[in-house]
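Agenda item 2: FE2/S2 (inorganic) cluster complex prediction
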Amino acid sequence: MRVSVGSLTDLPDGQGVRVESSGHRVAVFRLGDAVYAIGDRCSHAEASLAEGEVFDTDVECPRHGSEFSLLTGEPDSFPATRPVPTYEIEVVDGEVFLELEPIEENA
Ligand code: FES
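Presented output:
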């Protein structure tokens, strides 16, 4: 299922936005003209990754500091050890669409 998350220019650059739809809770990040989407629930203790700080293409969990890749959903620091799902994003004529079928989910 494809849902619109609004126009690219309305998304804050370098920050996350939480999107909830059809039982999914997704963290959407715009980095310039690129947009990434990963599961919003940290795989360690479910903190909102959309509220985390972005460093390059990683987001730092606001609760205990694990960093997750926005590209793969994989954590690269403890205490989280399991990835979060990644979601497909498409930008069409400046509008951002989120595909709500997880690409990978090992949780
Ligand atoms: S809740 Fe994210 S690292 Fe603990």
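Discussion summary: The radius of gyration is 13 Å.
Owner for follow-up: CH.
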